[in-house]
Amino acid sequence: MLYALNGIPSILFGIFGLIVFVGFLGWGKSWLSGGILLALVMLPTVTVAMIERIDALPRSHIEAAVALGLSESEVVRRVILPESAGALVTGLLLGLARVAGETAPILFTATVFAGATLPTGVRESPVLSLPYHVFVLAQDSFDPAVSRTVWGTATVLLLLVIGLSAVALPLRLRIHDEARHG
User: Fold this and answer.
1) Do residues 113 and 104 touch, judged by C-beta distance below 8 A?
2) Taking Cα atoms as reference points, which of 32, 11, 56, 41 lies closest to residue 111?
3) Each residue of 48-68: pLDDT tens digit?
4) b/e per residue, 16-27, with b = 16+ CB within 10 A?
5) Domains of the chain
6) pTM for the whole thing?
Protein backbone atom coordinates (compact mmCIF):
# COMPACT_ATOMS: atom_id res chain seq x y z
CA MET A 1 0.00 0.00 0.00
CA LEU A 2 2.84 2.41 0.84
CA TYR A 3 4.50 1.81 -2.53
CA ALA A 4 1.16 2.49 -4.24
CA LEU A 5 0.76 5.73 -2.27
CA ASN A 6 4.30 6.72 -3.23
CA GLY A 7 3.37 6.28 -6.88
CA ILE A 8 0.33 8.57 -6.86
CA PRO A 9 0.92 11.50 -9.23
CA SER A 10 1.43 14.78 -7.42
CA ILE A 11 -1.35 16.43 -9.42
CA LEU A 12 -3.83 14.14 -7.65
CA PHE A 13 -2.41 15.18 -4.28
CA GLY A 14 -2.83 18.79 -5.42
CA ILE A 15 -6.48 18.28 -6.35
CA PHE A 16 -7.07 16.46 -3.05
CA GLY A 17 -5.52 19.40 -1.15
CA LEU A 18 -7.60 21.90 -3.12
CA ILE A 19 -10.81 20.04 -2.32
CA VAL A 20 -10.07 19.23 1.34
CA PHE A 21 -7.86 22.02 2.72
CA VAL A 22 -8.78 24.99 0.53
CA GLY A 23 -12.44 24.13 -0.09
CA PHE A 24 -13.87 21.90 2.64
CA LEU A 25 -11.81 23.21 5.59
CA GLY A 26 -11.80 26.77 4.20
CA TRP A 27 -8.11 27.41 4.84
CA GLY A 28 -7.59 29.05 1.45
CA LYS A 29 -4.17 29.20 -0.13
CA SER A 30 -1.83 29.12 2.82
CA TRP A 31 1.51 27.77 3.98
CA LEU A 32 -0.36 25.45 6.35
CA SER A 33 -2.41 23.86 3.55
CA GLY A 34 0.68 23.40 1.40
CA GLY A 35 2.83 22.17 4.27
CA ILE A 36 0.37 19.51 5.40
CA LEU A 37 -0.17 18.37 1.83
CA LEU A 38 3.58 18.10 1.17
CA ALA A 39 3.93 16.15 4.42
CA LEU A 40 1.31 13.71 3.11
CA VAL A 41 3.25 13.42 -0.17
CA MET A 42 6.48 12.54 1.64
CA LEU A 43 4.94 10.31 4.32
CA PRO A 44 5.21 7.05 2.31
CA THR A 45 8.92 7.68 1.64
CA VAL A 46 9.66 8.24 5.32
CA THR A 47 7.52 5.29 6.39
CA VAL A 48 9.15 2.86 3.94
CA ALA A 49 12.63 3.90 5.15
CA MET A 50 11.60 3.30 8.78
CA ILE A 51 9.94 -0.04 8.06
CA GLU A 52 12.98 -1.31 6.18
CA ARG A 53 15.24 -0.40 9.09
CA ILE A 54 12.95 -1.89 11.73
CA ASP A 55 12.71 -5.12 9.69
CA ALA A 56 16.51 -5.21 9.51
CA LEU A 57 16.92 -4.93 13.30
CA PRO A 58 18.37 -8.09 14.81
CA ARG A 59 15.54 -9.94 16.50
CA SER A 60 17.90 -10.71 19.37
CA HIS A 61 17.98 -7.01 20.41
CA ILE A 62 14.23 -6.92 20.83
CA GLU A 63 14.13 -10.32 22.54
CA ALA A 64 16.87 -9.23 24.96
CA ALA A 65 14.96 -6.07 25.84
CA VAL A 66 11.78 -8.06 26.49
CA ALA A 67 13.76 -10.61 28.54
CA LEU A 68 15.05 -7.75 30.70
CA GLY A 69 11.44 -6.87 31.51
CA LEU A 70 10.94 -3.81 29.31
CA SER A 71 7.34 -3.10 28.36
CA GLU A 72 6.36 -2.75 24.69
CA SER A 73 6.52 1.04 24.87
CA GLU A 74 9.95 0.88 26.52
CA VAL A 75 11.22 -1.50 23.81
CA VAL A 76 10.06 0.96 21.19
CA ARG A 77 11.52 3.98 23.02
CA ARG A 78 14.83 2.40 24.14
CA VAL A 79 15.65 -0.12 21.38
CA ILE A 80 13.71 0.37 18.17
CA LEU A 81 13.73 4.18 17.94
CA PRO A 82 17.43 4.66 18.71
CA GLU A 83 18.35 1.91 16.23
CA SER A 84 16.07 3.45 13.60
CA ALA A 85 16.96 7.12 14.05
CA GLY A 86 19.28 7.11 11.04
CA ALA A 87 16.54 5.68 8.84
CA LEU A 88 14.17 8.38 10.03
CA VAL A 89 16.66 11.11 9.12
CA THR A 90 17.37 9.46 5.77
CA GLY A 91 13.67 9.07 5.01
CA LEU A 92 13.03 12.69 5.91
CA LEU A 93 15.86 13.92 3.70
CA LEU A 94 14.72 11.78 0.76
CA GLY A 95 11.14 12.92 1.29
CA LEU A 96 12.22 16.55 1.43
CA ALA A 97 14.22 16.07 -1.77
CA ARG A 98 11.10 14.69 -3.41
CA VAL A 99 8.73 17.43 -2.32
CA ALA A 100 11.22 20.22 -2.99
CA GLY A 101 10.40 19.98 -6.67
CA GLU A 102 6.69 19.25 -6.42
CA THR A 103 4.68 21.92 -8.18
CA ALA A 104 1.10 20.65 -8.37
CA PRO A 105 0.40 20.21 -4.63
CA ILE A 106 1.59 23.69 -3.73
CA LEU A 107 0.16 25.25 -6.89
CA PHE A 108 -3.34 24.35 -5.70
CA THR A 109 -2.93 24.91 -1.98
CA ALA A 110 -0.17 27.31 -0.99
CA THR A 111 1.59 29.42 -3.54
CA VAL A 112 1.24 32.52 -5.67
CA PHE A 113 3.68 33.92 -8.22
CA ALA A 114 3.99 37.41 -6.77
CA GLY A 115 2.60 39.59 -4.03
CA ALA A 116 3.03 37.19 -1.15
CA THR A 117 4.45 38.56 2.06
CA LEU A 118 5.51 36.89 5.25
CA PRO A 119 2.57 34.82 6.51
CA THR A 120 0.36 36.68 8.94
CA GLY A 121 -1.66 33.66 10.00
CA VAL A 122 -2.46 30.11 9.05
CA ARG A 123 -5.43 30.83 6.75
CA GLU A 124 -5.38 32.78 3.51
CA SER A 125 -1.64 33.47 3.68
CA PRO A 126 -0.09 32.28 0.39
CA VAL A 127 3.66 31.98 -0.03
CA LEU A 128 6.19 32.02 -2.88
CA SER A 129 7.85 28.78 -4.00
CA LEU A 130 10.70 27.88 -6.34
CA PRO A 131 8.88 25.18 -8.35
CA TYR A 132 5.93 27.43 -9.09
CA HIS A 133 8.25 30.33 -9.87
CA VAL A 134 10.04 28.17 -12.47
CA PHE A 135 6.67 27.03 -13.86
CA VAL A 136 5.36 30.57 -14.39
CA LEU A 137 8.64 31.92 -15.76
CA ALA A 138 8.97 28.99 -18.15
CA GLN A 139 5.71 30.05 -19.76
CA ASP A 140 7.45 33.32 -20.76
CA SER A 141 10.75 31.66 -21.66
CA PHE A 142 10.80 33.02 -25.23
CA ASP A 143 11.98 36.31 -23.76
CA PRO A 144 15.83 36.10 -23.45
CA ALA A 145 15.85 38.11 -20.19
CA VAL A 146 13.34 35.74 -18.60
CA SER A 147 15.23 32.71 -19.89
CA ARG A 148 18.27 33.52 -17.72
CA THR A 149 16.04 33.90 -14.66
CA VAL A 150 14.30 30.59 -15.38
CA TRP A 151 17.60 28.72 -15.69
CA GLY A 152 18.99 30.39 -12.58
CA THR A 153 15.93 29.50 -10.52
CA ALA A 154 15.87 25.96 -11.90
CA THR A 155 19.55 25.58 -11.03
CA VAL A 156 18.91 26.65 -7.43
CA LEU A 157 16.04 24.15 -7.19
CA LEU A 158 18.15 21.39 -8.73
CA LEU A 159 21.05 22.11 -6.35
CA LEU A 160 18.64 21.97 -3.42
CA VAL A 161 17.36 18.54 -4.47
CA ILE A 162 20.86 17.25 -5.24
CA GLY A 163 22.11 18.55 -1.90
CA LEU A 164 19.36 16.82 0.08
CA SER A 165 19.90 13.60 -1.87
CA ALA A 166 23.68 13.81 -1.40
CA VAL A 167 23.24 14.10 2.35
CA ALA A 168 20.73 11.23 2.43
CA LEU A 169 22.78 8.76 0.37
CA PRO A 170 25.69 8.29 2.84
CA LEU A 171 23.23 8.00 5.70
CA ARG A 172 21.26 5.38 3.79
CA LEU A 173 24.39 3.39 2.98
CA ARG A 174 25.52 3.55 6.60
CA ILE A 175 22.13 2.34 7.81
CA HIS A 176 22.21 -0.66 5.47
CA ASP A 177 25.80 -1.38 6.49
CA GLU A 178 24.84 -1.25 10.19
CA ALA A 179 21.89 -3.53 9.53
CA ARG A 180 24.06 -6.11 7.79
CA HIS A 181 26.68 -6.09 10.54
CA GLY A 182 24.03 -5.83 13.27
Assistant:
1) no
2) 32
3) 888 888 888 888 988 999 999
4) bbbebbbeeeeb
5) 2-181 (1.10.3720.10)
6) 0.74
